[in-house]
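Good morning C.,

I know you're traveling, so I'll keep this short. The sequence:
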Amino acid sequence: MTAALADALQCIWMWQHVRVAADKHDVIQVVHRLLEEWDAGAPERWENVTIPAYLEAMAAWLDGYEHAYINTGRTVPTDGWSVFASALQAAAIYE
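The tokens, ready to paste straight into the viewer:
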């Protein structure tokens, strides 16, 4: 599998599974779901399995997250809870 195809598949997976958050309780559920993925060790789908890599990916994703929505034909969220929940999830796979 080429790197470009792997990247495309990761993006497709993320947009199919990203949970939109309406409030802090939704964000808490996202965090719990991410933690559950670690029950058996580092998840295979995660690109960023260290805290520094995860945080770096989150910062990079937040820096241009609007483009991820625009490029996939989705409405760019403006509320903080949705952006934060998406950033938490995207940081797992964002390169």
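Safe travels,
E.
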